[in-house]
Amino acid sequence: MAEDLARVEAELRDSVRTDDAFLTEVASHLILAGGKRIRPGFTIAAAFGAVAEARPADHSVVMGAVSVELVHLGSLYHDDVMDDAATRRTVDSVNARWGNLKAILAGDFLLAKASEIAASLGTEVAGLLANTIARLCEGQVRELQDAYNIGRTEQNYYTSIAGKTAALLATACRIGGIVADLPRPLIDTLTTFGRCYGMAFQVVDDILDLVSTDEELGKPSGNDLVEGIYTLPVLYTLETPAADALRAILGDKLEPEQREAARAIVLAGDGIERALEVAREFSHEAASALAPLEGTFAAASLGAAADHLIAKVAAAASR
Ligand code: GRG
What we know:
The chain is mainly alpha-helical. Helix content is 75%, strand content 1%. The chain has 16 helices and 2 strands. The protein has helices spanning 2-15, 21-32, 38-47, 59-83, 94-98, 100-120, 123-145, 154-179, 184-211, 214-217, 223-226, 232-237, 243-249, 256-268, 271-289, 297-317; strands at 87-88, 91-92. Strand 1 (87-88) and strand 2 (91-92) form a beta hairpin.
């Protein structure tokens, strides 16, 4: 698998190479900055859903993995413009380095390249990726509509993260299964794994935004509160006797001391613990979904990813 991921790296760089040196530089920026490559890893692992041992993945599987990572990258370019982010993957964000207009256009370029590659893999993959891009936008718009809304419901939160995060992780797995021509029930199983994993992943990410240090995050802890994105721990805290104190602070832009006061209220209650329980449930649901794939390389490697996430949840819980 390490060799397949190295092939993904080479193809990713190749996919954004153009005659225009400047566009190539801007479009390559976050590819060269690294990232965990969870999504391409899932595509490759999923493609081994009917065999016990990994072997070099087919070229089409590698390209499926590239198309998924390109969509992820495009969404990061656009997300950083929306958040006015200064850094991403420990380097300058594209918007910070080249400005919003170029960041948006380069993000569009990455999406176009992802679509071109997906089309070369067949109409099902092309349609699936297009649908997933739409779901990312829907999830993000849902989040924006609820910005600064202290009445945001738990259901709205789940709908938003299902679109903005879980949909692409589900698609990463699904594309691996489709391109490897696995039986349909196994493709559905892999998709369920990716969706549940993605839900857990975002809930954990949202918890970490509140419990981590500024150094760990590379930005001020509690940034979601500042942006008016009220995540699961906050929504749970709004159901407790501390709700009045929290409501008095939230609902509008925050000064740093207000952010700290709101964060302290959330950390003092049981909102973090309740959200961790939700993350545990989604992670276990992801792991259990793999049962029909038992004995395959996909089950072993995706199962290890779910275990890693469960361990991350436990580490967050022990803070
Ligand atoms: C244009 C496709 C497109 C979308 C527009 C901006 C937007 C709508 C959606 C934002 C989606 C988004 C950024 C969701 C958050 C997903 C997430 C948890 C990202 C972090 O993923 P990691 O930790 O990052 O895998 P690395 O850098 O390791 O790849």
